[in-house]
Amino acid sequence: MSAAPALGIASFGVAFGEDRDVAATAGEYVDHPERVVNWGFRTYHRAPDDLHATDLARAAAQQALDRLGRTADSLDLVVVASSDLPEYAYRDGAAALARDLKIERTQTLLLNEGCAAGVHGLYYVAATMALQPEIDTALFVAVNRVSEFHRNRMNVVNAVLSDAAVAVVVQRGHRANQWLATEQFTEPEHCDLLRVDFGGTVSPLPPAGWTSRDAPGGHENVRRQFGDDPAVLQRFLSNRYTRLLEVIDGACRRAGLGRDDIDHLIYLNDGAASIAAVAEPLGLPLSRTNAAVAPGHGHMGAADQLVALEQQLASGVLRQGDVVALCGISTDRWSATLLRV
């Protein structure tokens, strides 16, 4: 079995949709905007109608390469994690990004496991580099671009969905922002919880007159799933945090570390109470989480954690040697990755 390679994130690039004020625009999406405002988000990013996931991914990737002084033809691997609908069916989004970057015959991989793919996607980069010693430099991009035709960005979960991409260049032997370990597992029972019921082979087209503005939201889907049984629903909600701690502990075991070694937690861009529910059992205050970053961005799908990591590195919140736990949920999948700054 190959040993885990020594590799680290050498540079970051980010790209955002246009900034929108939550309080000023919530009424365009929901009938009770005060509920959305009370989640605590100030700003979200909405891409113009003609700007799509591959465009955001290309912009973030180019920035990451430029900051490192590298060109795309120096990449040995391109991995893309996309957490919303692609621009086109029957097209490989990782290949589309490689084409936009004007590179050929480069190994690519596309991940579409939802919001946590930006966390466990780093494992697939590390695993590929472990098994292919000829790979020295990889590009990993996490992108979220909401299809407002299919989803109401303010009525899916208790967060405003946002359009953004983050790219990292991972290099073998790079000593900063080193990947230490990743743990993930799936509990498939609730994999349909936030599904869109049309657009696939079962129901290719929406019902006549359907719009995302008036369609039932994620909360209705949750109530339907659990049959209005408060005890069952509460157990499901509590298990979210239990499973997150379980997956973080698993990553710690793989890295030969314990909870006490974690200096900083980066979770999904959620409300402060949800972030605290993960941080407190780790002995971490909110000041050592992404709680201060989240309100200015909304939930950027798979891009949340790496955007927060980039911003906290740039601001000096993270110090050399700190161990950072990135963690997230994709409805049915829990993921955690440990990095050493």
From TrEMBL:
It comes from the Bacteria. Residues 252-331 form the Beta-ketoacyl-[acyl-carrier-protein] synthase III C-terminal domain. InterPro entries: ACP_syn_III_C, Thiolase-like. Gene3D superfamilies: 3.40.47.10. Keywords: Acyltransferase, Transferase. This is 3-oxoacyl-[acyl-carrier-protein] synthase III C-terminal domain-containing protein.
